[in-house]
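Lay summary. Proteins are chains of building blocks that fold into shapes, and those shapes determine what they do. In this project we predict the shape from the chain. Here is one chain we studied, written as its sequence of building blocks.
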Amino acid sequence: MRTGMVLANTPFPPDIRIEKEACILVGAGHDVLVLSRGEVGQTAEERIGGVTAIRHRVHPGSSLRRKLDSLRYLLTLDSPSWRRAMVDLAHTQGAEALHVHDLPYARSAIRAARETGVPVLLDLHENYPAALKLWARRPIDRLLFSPRRAARLERWACSRADAVIVVVSEAKARLVGMGVPAERISIFGNSEPRDLTESAEPPVLPPAEDRLHLVYVGGVAAHRGLDTAVEAMPALLEANSHARLTIVGEGPKRDAVESLRARAAELGVAEAVDLTGRLPFSEAMDRIREASIALVPHKRSAHTDATVPHKLFQYMALGRPVLASDCAPLARIIRETGAGAVFESGNPASLAERALELAEDSRWRGASEAGREATLGEWNLESEGESLLDAYARATAKAGRR
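And here is the predicted shape, written in a compact code that computers can read:
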């Protein structure tokens, strides 16, 4: 089957979720196309690994037409330019299904799928309406693509997609509660390939003085809870003068990183907090290996209660005990697997207390081993791949009955 993944208005590569799904689909014999935004200097079509990248630019020769398309999108949540590109993906490139990632261009994708007669799969990475309440956005976007309007689009799209894919069972339960039939929803998570665990050196218990080296890898923004980690550092340094916090990543706004740097200085812990900025994937994985405890300190909200980050499974695969906030999916997975400890979201004292417990010899060894075992068993890309393939089979069958 020739599959058309749609990453509208976003460049590719990189996109870790698309790359994981493409790995499963290509392994099952699919020919994968990825329609994405073309950047200046990029070729219109390029073979990357096992997929073909198709780049689209909205009216590159006319600033006026580009602005009109953008306005049309904001008014109707349907971009004529992107919808035509999706139709071309089916008619010209031979895509036999459209797999649209995230909510914003779902209307365009569903209309393109109906025009071409191919099934459409809606891949919801998160509770998008709830996320809009947390993200920094332009005033016009806040006005014309409000959380309430996004929620209406989500209901509309879920009722018309041939299959809906979510990342965690809590997200499925949320959609079922909205009236989406459970049998239409598949869970394909953000776990890592089994090879990441198998190729990693078994972790060695660090010396006691290095047991409180905490690491975080990912986006930097207010809802990520990194201020809680910084504010826990005085207590950790009091317990162990060698305690350190490494934050790898950056945010959509530079001031998010600078705010953390300023807070660390205000608390007198700047020398114990290393803000590296964004690093290549291999270097980020090295930073995890250098640390002893890995953090997912996300602040609990309707958004974080219905998604789970890739970093959780990267930490587990590399054998680092995970210290996570009590967002519903994080807490459930940590407790089910025994891969770490859970602290109260937004509470620095709770984070510090749980970190000290996790640094104890037997607790550290047990969580490290449990995380690795989980990623070799249930929580890996290969195990979750069947769910993705099943979604394609059901979407194709449903479309064939129309």
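What the prediction tells us: The radius of gyration is 22 Å.
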